[in-house]
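Attaching the record inline, Q. Sequence:
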Amino acid sequence: MKHDIVQKALDYFSSGYTCSEAVLKSVAEAKGIDGNTVLPMASAFGSGMARTNGGFCGAFSGGVMALSLLQGRQVPDASLDRLYRSVADFKERFETLFESCECATLLGFSLSDEHAGEMFKAQNCKVRKCDRFVAFAAEEVERILTRKEP
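Structure, as predicted:
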């Protein structure tokens, strides 16, 4: 199952979906949720939160959205404890592996820079960097969702 989610996320990402869309869509579909229904909520989170300075990595954001979709509450008095533990675990593991959750730090430049597109292509960031973030986010979210709670 984990490999399927990772491959699906990478396929979506390589076909033109943003990193955040690819992660959210692949996890949602693996859990039986229509990926196209949830997809629009992830669109602005790609490219370091819509190419803003200091924005989170879109793959990380897509993972947080997937966790919230599947562990979030539907009534105001429901507990958020499980979801918050899951997000904290995801963030800690992402930062441990990649040293940051912030897009510009991960890429080495901000996507808000006027030459960002040229730098992104010249450094082959999509394949050399972003594919790793997308794959890890999809796999890690699946791991978190399938673990047993104490």
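The chain has a mean pLDDT of 95. The chain has nine helices and no strands.

More tomorrow.
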